[in-house]
Amino acid sequence: MKRIIYIIDPQCGWCYGNSESITAIKKMYGEKFEFELLVGGMWLGENAPRGGEKLHSYLEVNATRMSTTTGAVVGQAYYDLGANPDYTFSSLEPSAAIIAIKQLAPKQVFLFTKKLQEVLIGEGKRLDKLENYWPILRELSIDQQAFESIWMSKENIRTTNEEFKRAKSLANGFPTLILNASNTNQLLASGFFSTEAMINILDPI
Known about the structure:
Blueprint: E1 3-8, H1 13-17, H2 19-29, E2 34-39, H3 53-70, H4 76-82, H5 92-104, H6 109-122, H7 134-139, H8 144-151, H9 154-170, E3 176-181, E4 184-190, H10 195-202
Parallel strand pairs: 1-2
Antiparallel strand pairs: 1-3, 3-4
C-alpha cells in the first residue's frame, strides 16, 4: 500500500496549526494510504531556546500569525511560558513521548501528538513535566506506568534520536508531507497545507 509520511516537531507551531488538516486527511484516506508520523527534532540541546524576552517576542509574532492563518487556538499561558527563563523549549521530551506511544498505542500516535500540542500551545503547559502527560494518557486509556517507564529511558531516547536522523533525511522543515510509493518519495507539502488543497492532490493518486 502507498504510504503518507507526515513529519512534524512537537515544538513547531505550524504543525499544531496543521493538526486539523492532517486529522481530516487521515480520516478521509485511511483506507487508501498507510499513514506514518515522524518526529523531527527541531530544537535540541544548545539549539533549544530558553524562555525570555527574545523568545516571547518571537512567539507573539509567529504564533499569533499561525493562529490567525489556521484558526488554531494559542493560549495566553503559552506566551507566558515563552517569557519564562526556567523553561527550555526542547523537542526531545515531547518527541520521546510520541516515540513511547508508538510502542504502547501505535494506532493513537496522531491523536496523541495533536493533544500533546494542545497541552503545550493551547494550554501553555511544560512538556518536560511528566504530570502534564497524565490527562492525555487517561483520556486515551494508555497505561501511565508503562509510559513513565519508557518515556525518558536510554533505549527510548536512542530510538528517538534515530527517528530524528530519518526525519532529517526526508524533510528540510516542518510540517512536511511525503507520499512513499514503490520505494520513491514524492513531496506533497512543505509547510502549512489546507485540507482542500491536499484533497486535490490525493484524489487522483
